[in-house]
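Lab meeting, action items carried over

1. Structure of the three-component assembly. Owner: GW. Status: complete.
Input record:
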Amino acid sequence: MPTTKVPLSDLLSLVSDPCRVDPRGTYPNLGIYSFARGVFGKPPIDGAQTSANTLYRVRRGQFIYSRLFAFEGAYAIVPEEMDGVFVSNEYPTFDVDQDHLLPRYLYWLFQRRDVWRQVAVGAKGMGDRRQRVHPDKVLSYRIDLPSLGEQHRIVEKLDRVAALVDERRSAIEVAERETQALLLKAFQRAIHGAPLRPMAEVAPLVRRPVEIDLDAAYPELGVRSFGRGTFHKPELPGVEVGNKKLFRICAGDLVFNIVFAWEGAVAVAQPEDDGRVGSHRFLTCVPAPETATVEFLRFYFSTPEGLQKLGEASPGGAGRNRTLGLKKLESLQVPVPPIGRQHWFDRLQTKAHEARTIRANTAQDVEALIPAMLHEIFDGGAKAA
DNA sequence: GTGCGTATGTTGGTCTCGTG
DNA sequence: CACGAGACCAACATACGCAC
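Predicted assembly:
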């Protein structure tokens, strides 16, 4: 590219429009999402509540960032609808010299991780997990500055592709929801008219106590809420087990995290989970092969009906900690259609899962498109000197 | 085993104090 | 005395473990 590098200080000027806080006033407020995902409205600041005595007004088209989160891309252009909104002193704001730089071009430039990283190099803050970025760091960052016409062309191109990506993304989301809805419909058909039987008969509790060897290590298994499956916790050395009882988990177990079962902490132990252990908070149930399949039951506990039953079997009100009662689980009634119908449904689940994997891959490709274009446009050709 | 309180981790934010 | 940077705080999610 036949352009020269220009420091942002030639194009941006740090501005500040301080307003003394009036305790009788309220001040509309904005925040900036990390990863350059734009601004968001925050609840207005109440002049009587806040301890700040100065707030700063921002104007549309200004370039703004969060000093605390610049390292992870909290940069934005103030949109039309946020004109005149207030921010604290943690949000440096700049006027853009629009005769030479399109705000939208700057927006696209700051979509790039590379740029965040380069601007934040040497950022202040050692002991703290965060690193503030000083406005001088931003102003001294040097960018390629093509002509306004060229900037227009680049912005137009990126905006066009971004719109397509958005379209694609929402199409994927729609397909995802549709699959889920179809699956639920199919499930309801599968259980239509099926008898209800207690868990104790359908998938009795199977506990496999572990003898603790002080020299051994015990890899623990966790179950995420909201049906998000299992996860691996670090190994627990035998000496650290203390008096906690551990139970072995086998692939194919239906595992309940009893504290969070009511919000969907139910999963099927996968082959890679086999042999891991869980505390007494993790219940493992094994379906009787001729009666029920584990995936069928897991699905039931992800439906509104199944979750409601888990909720009813989980008393307690210590915040989100609601322990699923053991006896209550054993007597919990689940629908048990003929095993053939369950297998039919499980095949549908497998198909749906495959479709979801394919969509996830497509989604990944789609999401990679913009970063690839940014790379090509902003650092194709000449390397920074 | 159960129910419940509490510890710990994560994230997004403001406060305040030492210092040049 | 303004400002920068760590201290501190709030809200929430997750995990632990005591006492009955």
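2. GW to write a short summary for the group page. Key points so far: Chain A has three domains: 4-145, 148-180+337-385, 196-335. Confidence is low (pLDDT under 50) at residues 381-385 of chain A.
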